[in-house]
Each structure stands twice: as structure tokens, then as C-alpha cells.
Amino acid sequence: APRALRPPAGPTGLGTSAARVAPPRPAASSASGVPELYCPPALRDDPALGREVNNRLLAWAGETGIYAGRLDRVRAADFGRLMMLAHPDTDDADRLLAAGKCALAEWATDDYYCDDGAGPELLGSHLGPAYAAFDPAHLPARYAPAWEREMRADPVRVALRSGLEHLARYAEPSQLNRLRHEVAVLYVGYGQEGSWRSREYVPTVPEYLAHRQFNSFLPCIALADVVGGYTLPAGEYADPRVRRAVTMAATAATLVNDLYSMTKEHHATGVEFNLPTVIAEQERCSPREAIERSVEIHDELVRTYEAEAAALALTGSPQLRRFLAGVWAWLGGNRAWHSGSPRYNNA
Ligand SMILES: CC(C)=CCC/C(C)=C(\C)COP(=O)(O)OP(=O)(O)O
Questions:
Q1: From 3.30.930.10, 1.10.600.10, 3.50.50.60, 3.30.465.10, which CATH number describes the 36-345 domain?
Q2: Rounded to whole angstroms, how far apart are CA atoms 164 and 278?
Q3: For the purposes of burial, counting CB atoms within 10 Å of the CB of 88, is it exposed (0-12), middle (13-18) or buried (19 or more)?
Q4: 154 lines ligand 1 (CB under 6 A)
Q5: To test ligand 1's pocket by mutation, which of 110, 213, 221 has the most ligand atoms within 8 angstroms of CB?
Q6: What is the pTM (predicted TM-score) of this model?
Q7: What is the pLDDT of residues 219-241, one digit of tens each?
């Protein structure tokens, strides 16, 4: 059942202990070799709901043309399950589907334009029209039909546009603009990675960590209120203290991806970008030591979110409290999904 979420109470017990989402308890180490992470547990597991969302997501992906010929792998990755785990405060399959479409389209942007050998020199050319699928370019009448053909000619653009259209049934304009901003930032991250890739450049650790805030799950996390069926006021989302906490959570969630996707990326051709690889190279340590240091960084980010969200929840609006709790729940669902998804565990 959907849960009434509560924000983290903070490591020092700010607020009441009953308000805590879950006691900090280490997640079990998995066969993937990822050590225990400081992370809340997933708050619900409803396999039937996850399957329902995944089935509908796959039907939609087939209509848009993304991952043609690879849909079996997408089905197995089970992004529907990710949505179900990460948004425990709704059991509305259609809301989960709308968020899932946006997430899968954003993932496809990465898979098609960054990872699948499209070539870094083409990345900017792809990202411009991809962004226009989310934030339409309004052309003079003479050129509009040709542009519209361009927009329909590429399955990733079709998917991005369709995902946003579905979300718009539930989101207010300010929430859609929030998503547009986060996706623009995401594409800055894609561009940065493309630049590194083209030069075979290994970033410094701070450079990589700042990048992972941009090239992160924030576009997904930012939808916590849309999926939950309430609206976090734009002013509170933009509050620098909220932004700091939420972006730290987003970076942590994405470092979970780095840790779980190491095996998949080892099998990929070209330069690998994940925190353990960057640390091993820049700090001249063993892969195991680099993983341990990455886990420490992840855990520090999660603990900081936990403490700062707890403090913000004491003075913020009810919507902010719920949003901070939604982000906390998203962290738990994200880790649970990564630890089980064949996208990372059967590479
Ligand atoms: C859903 C979403 C906002 C994805 C955008 C960014 C993205 C693909 C990740 C944060 C995952 O990182 P990575 O590029 O390493 O992805 P995979 O490991 O290939 O799943």
C-alpha cells in the first residue's frame, strides 16, 4: 500500500524518533561485490504493481521505437520496478508510468547518444534537438514543419516528448519547468562526459563528483511530488538549503549506480567513467580500496542529507516535509533496484 512518508529525523534524533523513515541500517552486501551502503531500506515492495508499470512502459517504448530490437533487455532491467520501489507514496500505476516514461527516455538519451558509440563529436548535435523535445523550439511558420519532421525522426526525441506529455497530465507548469531545468543540467553533464571521452581524459575526483551531481538521477528525484500528487512550491525547491540537500542526495543515488554498474562498464568498449575508476587512477590505489573510498563518499552524502533534511523539515511547509521524505524514500528504492536489476547484476 502507498505510505505516508516521513522525512528523516537526522542522526542526532532531531524531531521525534518515531518520525524516522527507518533506523540507519546497513544494506546487505550483494553478489555484485558492492559493500554495505548507508542507505534507508525500500519502504515497499509490491511486485504486481511494479510488473504492471513495467508492462505498460514496455508497450509504450515499443510505440516510440526506442530500444528497438533490445526491448527484452529493457523488460528485464525492470524500470517499472524502480518506479514502484522509489515512489512508495502512491499506488497509482499511471502516475508511476508517467515518471517511468520520462526516466526511460532520459536513460535512452544517455544510451543512444553517449554510450552506444554514437561518437562524442555528434553528442551536441543530438542533445540540442533532444532538449527541444522537452522544451519546444517555436520556429517561424516557414521552418516549423521541417523542424517538426526532425522531431519525429528520432525515437529518443519521440520518447522524450511523449513522456513529458504524459507527465503534464499530473504536473503543474512550475513542476514541468523544474524538470526542464534538471534535464538541461543533465545534458550539460552528458556534454562534459563526451568531452572527457573524446580526449580520453580522466577527471580529478572533485571534478568527477561535481559532474555526478549534474549527470545524475535528479530529474527522476525531482518528480517526487508530481508522482505523490502534491506540489512543492517552486520557492521552496529553489531554496539554496533545500537544493544543497537534494543535490547531495541525487549525487549519492548516482554513486550507487556507479558502484553497481562497474561490471557492466568493464565490459563496455571505450573509457569508463565511474567513481571507483576515477579514484583508482587519480589516487593511485587498488580497485578494492577505490570502492571502499567511494562507499565512504556515498555514505557521507547520505548522512549529510539525513541531517540537513531533518533540520529543514522542522521549519518547512508540509509539502517540503513530504518532499524531503520522498527523496529519502527514493534513495532506498534506488538502492534496492540497483542491487537486483539484471541491468547491473548479470552483466
Ligand atoms: C534516468 C536518468 C535521469 C538517467 C540519466 C543519467 C543516467 C543514465 C544515470 C545517472 C546512470 O548513469 P550511467 O550513465 O552510468 O548509466 P548506466 O550505468 O548505463 O545505467
A1: 1.10.600.10
A2: 34
A3: buried
A4: no
A5: 110
A6: 0.92
A7: 999 999 999 999 999 999 999 99
